[in-house]
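Feature request, filed as a ticket because there's no other form

It would be nice if the structure record came with a short human-readable summary line next to the tokens. Right now we just get the raw output. Example of a typical job, pasted below so the devs can see what we mean:
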Amino acid sequence: MLSLLIALAAQTAAPLARSWPTHEQDVVLKDFRFRDGEAMPELKMHVTTLGSPHRNAAGQIDNAVMVLHGTGGDGHQFLRPQFADELYGRGQPLDIRKYWVILPDNIGHGKSSKPSDGLRMKFPKYDYADMIEAQHRVLTEGLGIRHMRLIMGTSMGCMMSFMWGEMYPDFESALMPLACEPIEIAGLNRMWRQMLIDGIEKDPAWNGGNYAREPEQGLRTAASILVIAGSAPLNFQKTYPTRQAAAAHVEQAVPAYIKEMDANDAIYQFDSSRNYNPWPQLERIKAPLTWINSADDFINPRNLPFAQEALKRMKKTARFRLIPETAETHGHGTHTWAKFWKAGLSGPSEMPLLPFVSEFVSDGDGTSG
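Raw output as currently delivered:
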């Protein structure tokens, strides 16, 4: 849902999107077992890809890049111009003539299996580790990948990037977490998530998840909280400089948000962070890691003191950047505006995450040879 709000806020500021050559597919994972012991005979994972796989001399795919979305989002959010037009084109950091870009819809999101498909609150209570296990099976069983060139993610996907480095430290060559902290979801970050969940469940119309119509008051509470969580003070002041403009934005954003939400899906999505805490095992991360946060991020505020200690514990291959707050940044949503951070992928740097692969380039826009 937070990803949706960011998209709604960006619609008036972003240029029209160009059309990118994508491939859509479902990967069905048989007998998927969740960490709490629950199981599903079939778990559907929807995947969007751009570009083509390249195989090295040993026949192994060596150009796969996975981008992980945030809470309430899906893989298609990375086709929006503020992300895609900065990264996928000729000579850009994720040039799809050179890299095979993989955009999964995570469990509970997009076109992948989720509570609103029919199980409602009987759907298994997935968490981030379950999502990562599903991603790993999609990559290995569904797409035939044995090693990732890069795993990057925004918000929830940022947190999963840290977890990938701990759960599968030899599976990726580089990591790029955007907009998160490698600590337990606690303090204000857990409080607003809990209020969002409580706001839905306290609406009598929710009826334990067995509603005939979406619980509108509960969803209005959730959407209102998400407007605040996705805020960018300087940007909002510039974009909505009058009382009338600010009120009009909220009056448009909240109903648009509600229209796209399912109450049970939202509860699952925001509760799935309940046991996230990579802090105790940061030393397991081996891959070079570039971690980027934004100074105007409500969810991950600039004065949290964890970055310096985390960098010390993640070897000498980790680096951290805090994007300064300006009237042009987008709060938590800055993670999706690649112009603010794409230099961290390639270009002049003492440690580029993704130096271009030079030996396979075609003249086409969307294929590699």
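Something like this underneath would help us a lot:
Residues 8-16, 355-369 have pLDDT under 50 and may be disordered.
Residues 101 and 168 are 19 Å apart (CA to CA).
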